[in-house]
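Me: I keep going back and forth on a fold encoding question. No explanation is needed for now; the record alone will do.

Assistant:
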Amino acid sequence: MRIRSRDWLALLAGGLLTLQAQAFTVFACEPEWAALVRTLVPDARVHVATHAGQDPHHIEARPALIAQVRAADLLVCTGAGLEAGWLPTLQQRAGNPKAQDVFFAADHAGPLLDAKPGAVATPWSGDVHAQGNPHVHADPHRLRRIAQALAVRLQAERPAQRDDIAQRHTSFDAQWVARITAWEQQAAPLRGKAIAAQHTGFGYLWAWLGVRPVADLEPRPGMPPTPGHLQGLLASLRGTPPAAIVVAAYQDARAGRWLATQLGGTVPLLVLPATVGPDADAQALMRWMDDLLQPLVRLGPP
């Protein structure tokens, strides 16, 4: 029996849909975890909830995200309360049993900075994280531990690919360790520098590099800078200006720009990317770390 061309097209489309339905599907809350998943399981279908231009604390539980969670075999998120304002809504509305056992990166990052046991968020408290600062991906040592734990979880999820995942992780780990050594040599002059920043999104970066965060442009974590708070910072920083003022690319830079201007224009304002692009892989993670360090090391001696 002869099959007409349009029937071939229908069969082909049906086959593609079947393959897509069978593909291992991951919902990543942030781009950095999507990048690690793609590194370890390149043929996975990865959806990302956020991008570098968004504050990951505050995401709308849109229907498209609900549909992606509904179809996911695994959720990979930061945890430590970072997604507390929107992830539970996605899980509830998706109705996907697989979406309940989330891989939370912060659970594998080691002790978190600035933990506040028993702290409770209120509408006036800003972003309160009782477990500690959730922005762990800015420390390459912590990210390395997370990658190891994620490889183990992915092997459990995809046992037929166990050896391939192990090999990819070994390759990534070797490259990452070599880059850590190079980054630490490059960034050695940063130790002891004072930084004014907006929010604690780079807190792990400062701790890793030995940089001293001496001022936060936010009066409370996650709350926009206010004129009164900025005036107070200006008064305290005039005598001993920081080496730089740092804001993330997703933040409004006007407060940092105002403070830099009021300090006489001698303190640079650095706008740094908070994470990688939505389609990134491990190489993009490495380039992202390069992009963070290069403007900082140009600041000169402490």
